[in-house]
């Protein structure tokens, strides 16, 4: 983790943090997870794919929403506590305002067949975004056999064996730490 912090640019301003996370929040209909990597890695260049995968992994094992945790951690990395607050407010501002408006409309029109069809389409699009991001994250781990094995175990635990998230985390977190300590990272 020391070399991860050493490689980070420190010139990201509060305004840049706000703009990036506001964009993530406003674009993230159906979930912001599909927008975080493209904006943080591809568009802004704040992290590379491997750094993003590691930060996302760390934010995923903490309580709360991964993207919220990631916003706080990245904001803190660049601007300390005020950067964490800036990224968090920016990420949540637009979605909360939009949610309040949509919730009142949904309450009125929820049983309409067209609304039900639109929601089914949105669910399919969200699944596509999740699969696309998973592919990019796996690509970033190419050559790291240990990390890929842990990812495969985690996928199988949830997808095939239907283990609960708490059980998966209870096995995977200490198990992966132990494996990396014993065998080291081969990157």
Count every helix, treating DSSP H or I runs of 4 or more residues as helices.
Answer: 8
Mean pLDDT, rounded to whole units? 86
Give me the secondary-structure category: mainly alpha
- Beta strand count: 0
What report would you give on this structure?
The longest helix is centred in the middle third of the chain and has 44 residues. The radius of gyration is 18 Å and the shape is globular. The chain has eight helices and no strands. The protein has a domain of 109 residues. With 187 residues, it is mainly alpha-helical. It starts with a helix and ends with a helix.
Compact summary:
This is Chromate transporter. The chain has 187 residues and is mainly α.
Topology:
Elements: H1 2-6, H2 14-27, H3 33-43, H4 49-60, H5 66-109, H6 113-140, H7 145-159, H8 165-183
List descriptors.
mainly alpha; 8 helices; 0% strand; disordered N terminus
